[in-house]
Backbone:
């Protein structure tokens, strides 16, 4: 291991100091099994800023590379969103029964584009301690939601998972279409009234769960927030 480390340092010296810092972190992680968070603690503020900058640049490049495919796949399946998707995705009030009594329940509600107009956002649960406008880009989130109905308000029993704040509805549908395409390629049978399938978003940073009927119409979708 020592011989490998000496060889590593000798080779990286030829590339300059910046290459040493960048590659040394990767080497330490591989050899000692440190996680990214632990490795970051060893960086100086300047090194961490440089790392964050490079990470953001890489993400922008990846997003630009994925964009044409997302658009192409969405055009192919755009009609699958037309019949039922927004009814549940935007949030719908349904009548449920418990112990012989009926009550109104809010279900769905995963579209942050209708926040303020159709549904109201409550406390953000994941990531905790941030407001909607302070949410990081490209990160899905969970929050409490409610909807005005008749003269009252109906709160959703469970939290709702939302796609990243900086994604508009077009980007959301493009990502969902990619998962839908993956589902069809997997050979999954559309034999139930409500079918489900999970797949990765375009940069594989989180999974998306989609729901669809036996005719292939999309009925709902949401990100898996861990």
Residues:
């Amino acid at each position: 291991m020592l011989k490998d480390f000496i060889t590593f340092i000798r080779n990286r010296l030829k590339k300059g100091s910046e290459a040493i810092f960048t590659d040394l972190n990767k080497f330490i992680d591989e050899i000692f099994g440190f996680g990214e968070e632990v490795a970051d603690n060893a960086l100086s503020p300047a090194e961490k800023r440089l790392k964050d900058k490079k990470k953001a640049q890489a993400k922008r490049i990846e997003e630009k590379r994925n964009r044409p495919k997302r658009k192409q796949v969405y055009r192919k399946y755009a009609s699958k969103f037309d019949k039922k998707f927004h009814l549940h995705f935007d949030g719908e009030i349904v009548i449920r029964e418990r112990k012989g009594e009926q009550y109104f329940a809010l279900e769905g509600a995963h579209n942050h584009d209708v926040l303020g107009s159709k549904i109201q956002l409550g406390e953000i649960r994941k990531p905790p301690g941030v407001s909607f406008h302070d949410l990081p880009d490209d990160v899905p989130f969970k929050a409490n939601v409610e909807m005005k109905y008749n003269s009252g308000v109906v709160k959703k029993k469970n939290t709702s998972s939302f796609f990243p704040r900086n994604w508009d509805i077009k980007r959301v549908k493009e990502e969902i279409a990619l998962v839908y395409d993956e589902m069809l390629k997997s050979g999954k049978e559309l034999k139930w009234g409500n079918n489900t399938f999970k797949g990765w978003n375009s940069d594989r940073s989180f999974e998306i769960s989609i729901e669809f009927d036996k005719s292939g119409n999309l009925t709902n979708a949401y990100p898996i927030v861990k």
